[in-house]
UniProtKB/TrEMBL annotation:
It holds the Pfam family Wzt_C. Residues 250-273 are annotated as: Disordered. This is ABC transporter ATP-binding protein. It comes from the Bacteria. Belongs to the ABC transporter superfamily. The lineage of its organism: Bacteria, Bacillati, Actinomycetota, Actinomycetes, Micrococcales. The keyword RNA-binding does not apply. InterPro entries: AAA+_ATPase (IPR003593), ABC_transporter-like_ATP-bd (IPR003439), ABC_transpr_TagH-like (IPR015860), Bact_Polysacc_Export_ATP-bd (IPR050683), P-loop_NTPase (IPR027417), Wzt_C (IPR029439). GO terms for molecular function: ATP binding.
Amino acid sequence: MTDVAIKVDHLSKTFRLHTERRNSIKEIFVRGKAPGVHDFHALRDVSFEVPRGSTFGLIGHNGSGKSTLLKILAGVYRPSAGQVLVDGRVSALLELGAGFHGELTGRENVYLNGAILGLSKKQIDRSIDQIIDFAGIGEFIDSPVKVYSSGMYVRLGFSVAVTLDPEILIVDEIIAVGDEEFQRKCFDHLFELRRRGTTIVLVTHSLTLAAELCDQGIWLDHGRPRELGDVSEVINGYLLDVNAKESASRAEAEAAGSHPDGGATVAPSVPRAGSGEIRMTKVTLHDASGVETAFVTPGETCTVRVHYRSTRSLRELTFGLAFIHESGITVAGPNSMQNDRTYDVEPGEGFIDFHSAAFPLQPGAFSISTAIVDKGHTYDYSDRETELRVRADHAVREPGLTRMIGRWSAEPSAPVEGRA
C-alpha cells in the first residue's frame, strides 16, 4: 500500500428498509411483524485504487451511491461485502455539522474535531489561528455552533478538515452551500492541497471542476461502476449517456404529444407581431447528418431550420434569428441579410436553414426568436417561442455563454525595447 492510499476491492453495501416500523413490543404483539421489509443495494461490486497524492472523482446522478461510498471510506459505514483499505489519516467533510456538538463553541469544536482526527492539543494550538482566519466567522467562533447558519457550519467544518494537514481528504458536494467568495477560497485551497501531495477523494456535480482537479474517476450508476479511469474519459462517457437519455425521453414525450415536463410540443399561444401573410410554424434542430435532434452540442455542426406557411407569393424576404439566454440576454442575432441573402416564397409550406459549422453557444437553456421581414415591414415575429437546449458531450473548461474562437501564441515572447 506504499504507493496506494485507498484500495476498494469488490465493495458492496446493502441497507435493509422497512416501509412500516413497529416501535414497541405492544405494537408487535397487537399488529404483528412489520410488513414490507426489503433490501436496498446502494453499492454493488465496486473496485478501484487511488494512488497516493492523486485526486479521485466520484461521478454520477443523485442516488447513484457516491455519498454512501464516501461514508464508507471515512469509516462512517461498514461495507456489507468486500474490503476497503485506507492508508493514512483521513479528514472528511461529508455533511453540515458532522462531528459538531451544538452546545460547544466553534473554538471548542475545533479541538474536538482535531482530537477525533488523532491530533494532540499542541498540534491543534499551532493551527487554531489559521483555522479561525480561514473560516472567517469572526466573533461567532466563541458562540455555540447551534446558533450558526448553514454557511457558517460549512465554513468552520471545511476549515477544520483542510487546515489540520490531512493525509487523505474526503469532500462531498457540501462546499457548494457556501457563498461565492468562500467557494473560491475552498477551491483554491483544494488545488493547493493537491500540489502539496494530499490524496483527495471528491464528489462534485461540477464536471468542469472534476476535469480540472481530478486525475482519475469512477462513474457510478445505481450503485454499479459504469466506467473507471482517466477522469476526462469517464466524464465524456457519463455526458454521452445523459444526453442519450434526455434525447430519448424528449422523443418519447413528443411522440405522446407533450414535453417531458407535461407542456405541449407546439409553441405556446403567444400573440404574434406582423401582418401575417407568412408565419413561422416551428423551428427544428438538425445535426451534421441532417437528422433532427433534441439539443445542440457546442462546437459541433448544427442547422437551425425555420419552417413557415405562406398565404401568398412574397418577394425578397429576410429571415432572422435571435438566441436568448434564460437570463434574458440576447447572445446573437444572425439574419440572412448578413450574407446578402433574401428569399422569394410561394403560397404553401417550406423552410429556410441557418447553418453553423461550429455552434458557438456554451451549455445552457436558451430560447429562439424568429423574424420574417421585408425592407422594414414585419410579416411575422415570434418572441422566444422555441426552446433551445445546448448540451456538452465533454467537460467544458471555458466560462461564459459563447465560445471565443482564436489562436494562442506558440510560446512566450520578450518585449521589444522601446515598445509597450
